[in-house]
Amino acid sequence: MATKHDNSSLLEVERSKSKPPKLYKVVLFNDDYTTMDFVIEVLQTFFAMNRERATQVMLEVHQGGSAVCGVYPKDIAETKVAQVSAFAKQHGHPLRCELEAT
After folding, report:
1. For a pLDDT cut of 90, what percent of the chain falls above it?
2. Do the Cβ atoms of 44 and 50 come closer than 8 Å?
3. Would you give the distance in Å from CA 21 to the centre of its chain?
4. Can you give the pTM of this predicted structure?
């Protein structure tokens, strides 16, 4: 005897769609004391920029007052800000680095 299966009583498994993480901009701000060479070093060291790109971003910081160094998930952005701030402090520079929501 054939048995009829009733699938209507089975719960459908909902597939959760994972969203990409919210991104944050890491921003450097101009000041009157931090040298241009130091800013270039920071950009090369912590943001993996080549010398030419680092110089362009440094000039944007210098002329415009601030510049975005990169866009990252929150935990990475916070780590970059902490690393840059500690490095600047260690070298006696008041370079300000912050994160902003995109």
Report:
1. 79
2. yes
3. 12
4. 0.81
